[in-house]
């Protein structure tokens, strides 16, 4: 009787997420493990508790606002009225609609990175957000090529002190998300509908020595006690597009012979005034034989491939948040920024060489973002920075030039009933050029997707991105490598996020969640604070370090 009662107590979206994380097409209470049922039925996992915790946090931000920050009081009071009962997904999405002050209270980003392994392989739960990200290209015994994305993502719903106030452990304070996508070269791209489950469900566990990360039946597990690699990835999901339902499953084993790449400044990208990220990568993972992909009812044995791994975590990314330095918050009021997002790339070349590159979005390119008209944007040019990694794992910082010369429109969704099609234009061809820090034979190259229909997908929060496998070609059109290209925050997902969070999608609400501009009195107060001689010298020193650490201008204003 208890299991049948469970069917009635849960909302449909939560049941669907629990079913899919356990590899079930439909929720079946009889197949839920007994210990998981105890977690699901606990008070901590109730809609009333998620609502109570959200209301407490919103009131805390009203009572203790960040200095030198536009007021979100009206927004938060409105959210409180809609937060008496929240599902885990609604609470998760609503956190993405909070203001700049939402970065307060999380574990502070250190001034310098001090990454140690295996300690830092597992999720770092005191920070706001983090992910374990595997992408790569492979060939099946059917001689078809595939690009694969496998992502374990987590988000701390509450700053740790508030979580402890409610008796939540660090694990219980999380929302865990799983994403799986496959592109079949020459055909099309499939994303499994993203899933998100709360740490209060008992469906997530992880450990070190050996590393293991279980999100239901989706797993990443090291096969040796003293090393992250080789690692086995197992994942499953369903694409629910209107014209077809496609089941996707992977069972991949990856090995590595290279050292970890510490991204940015020795693992800081950046570490500045308590915000930023800590970040390392494994750049050259080899797919072991007998790995398997299941797609469209066919089981495909994979015979070779190369992958890339990122582990990144930090504060102030989702949503964008304030610096923890008061003077930086004052400075951000003087130079207003309207752009957010980034483009990221990895390339794997002959000779066991790799390049990783990134370009934060900038206001001068706003005409290329959120474009949904009938015609594609023109040619976009940006600067990129990153690392070149040689065959011996030596990493060299590089900078170069990128030209986006072609675009593709996003006309699909892994579940159109839940994630609305955005009709947004995304980059679809990238031309790179670098200087003498990069070997001459790969100094100039072009990336083109392995499919022509676009590779956009959704986060469970409703934000859209584009991510997929690419061919890398030289100026003569010769294939010289393969990689992955990522474009984030080209689409405006606010309407989708409002709908997913249970908030009304109205002009009034859309205006309420728009980024506020600092009022005149706040700008004057900021200017006078920064004009004080002692503060002027101090802010100059702080901002110089922020720039050296690679802090995007969108994170400081």
- Tally of individual helices: 12
CATH superfamily of the domain at 119-500: AttH-like domain
The share of residues in extended strands comes to 35-45%
Counting DSSP E segments of at least 2 residues, the number of strands comes to 24
What class do helices, strands and sheet pairing give? alpha+beta
- Profile the largest sheet: 15 strands, antiparallel
What is the CATH fold-level name of the domain at 119-500? AttH-like fold
Give the N-terminus to C-terminus distance in angstroms: 56 Å
**Outline:** globular
CA radius of gyration: 23 Å
The proportion of residues forming helix, as a percent range, comes to 10-25%
Q: What's the average pLDDT?
A: 94
CATH secondary-structure class of the domain at 119-500 = Mainly Beta
CATH architecture label of the domain at 119-500: Beta Barrel
- Uncertain runs with pLDDT below 50, 5 residues or more? 553-557
Please provide a written account of the structure.
- This protein is 20% helix and 37% strand.
- The chain is an alpha+beta fold and 557 residues long.
- The chain has a domain at 119-500: AttH-like domain (AttH-like fold, Beta Barrel), CATH 2.40.370.
- The protein has a 15-stranded antiparallel beta sheet that branches. An eight-stranded antiparallel beta barrel has the order 16-17-18-19-20-21-23-24.
- Strand 9 and strand 10 form a beta hairpin.
- Helix 8 packs across helix 11.
- The longest helix has 17 residues, at 47-63.
- It is globular, with a radius of gyration of 23 Å.
């Amino acid at each position: 009787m208890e299991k049948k009662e469970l069917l009635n107590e849960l909302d449909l979206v939560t049941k669907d997420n629990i079913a899919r994380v356990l590899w079930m097409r439909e929720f079946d209470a009889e197949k839920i493990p007994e210990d998981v049922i105890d977690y699901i039925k606990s008070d901590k996992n109730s809609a009333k508790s998620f609502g109570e915790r959200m209301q407490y946090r919103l009131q805390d931000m009203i009572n203790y606002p960040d200095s030198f920050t536009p007021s979100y009081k009206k927004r938060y009071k409105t959210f409180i009225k809609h937060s008496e009962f929240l599902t885990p997904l609604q609470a998760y999405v609503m956190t993405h609609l909070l203001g700049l002050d939402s970065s307060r209270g999380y574990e502070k980003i250190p001034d310098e990175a001090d990454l140690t392994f295996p300690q830092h392989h597992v999720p770092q739960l005191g920070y706001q957000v983090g992910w374990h990200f595997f992408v790569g290209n492979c060939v099946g015994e059917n001689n078809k090529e595939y690009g694969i994305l496998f992502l374990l993502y987590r988000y701390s719903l509450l700053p740790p002190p508030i979580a402890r106030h409610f008796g939540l452990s660090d694990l219980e304070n999380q929302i865990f998300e799983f994403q799986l996508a496959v592109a079949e070269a020459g055909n099309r791209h499939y994303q499994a509908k993203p899933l998100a489950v709360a740490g209060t469900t008992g469906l997530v566990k992880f450990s070190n020595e050996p590393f293991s990360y279980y999100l239901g039946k989706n797993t990443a597990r090291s096969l040796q006690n003293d090393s992250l690699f080789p690692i086995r990835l197992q994942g499953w999901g369903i694409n629910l597009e209107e014209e077809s339902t496609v089941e996707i499953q992977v069972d991949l084993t990856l090995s590595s012979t290279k050292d970890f790449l510490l991204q940015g400044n020795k693992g800081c990208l950046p570490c500045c005034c308590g915000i930023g990220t800590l970040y390392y990568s494994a750049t050259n993972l080899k797919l072991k034989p007998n790995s398997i992909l299941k797609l469209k009812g066919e089981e495909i044995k994979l015979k070779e491939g190369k992958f890339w791994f990122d582990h990144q975590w930090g504060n102030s990314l989702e949503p964008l948040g304030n610096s923890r330095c008061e003077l930086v918050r004052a400075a951000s009021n003087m130079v207003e920024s309207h752009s957010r997002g980034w483009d990221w790339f990895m390339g794997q070349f002959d000779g066991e060489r790799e390049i990783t590159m990134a370009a934060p979005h900038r206001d001068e390119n706003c005409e290329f973002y959120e474009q949904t008209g009938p015609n594609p944007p023109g040619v976009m040019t940006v600067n990129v920075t990153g690392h070149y990694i040689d065959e011996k794992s030596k990493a060299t910082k590089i900078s170069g030039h990128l030209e986006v010369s072609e675009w593709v429109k996003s006309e699909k969704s892994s579940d159109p009933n839940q994630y609305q099609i955005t009709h947004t234009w995304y980059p679809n061809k990238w031309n790179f050029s670098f200087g003498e820090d990069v070997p001459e034979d790969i100094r100039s190259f072009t990336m083109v997707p392995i499919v022509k229909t676009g590779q956009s997908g959704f986060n469970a929060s409703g934000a859209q991105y584009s991510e997929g496998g690419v061919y890398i070609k030289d100026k003569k059109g010769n294939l010289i490598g393969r990689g992955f290209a990522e474009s984030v925050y080209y689409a405006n997902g606010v309407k989708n996020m409002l709908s997913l969070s249970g908030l009304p999608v109205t002009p009034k609400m859309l205006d309420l969640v728009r980024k506020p501009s600092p009022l005149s009195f706040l700008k004057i107060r900021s200017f006078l604070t920064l004009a004080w001689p002692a503060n002027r010298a101090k802010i100059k020193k702080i901002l110089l370090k922020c720039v050296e650490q690679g802090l995007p201008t969108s994170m400081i204003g």
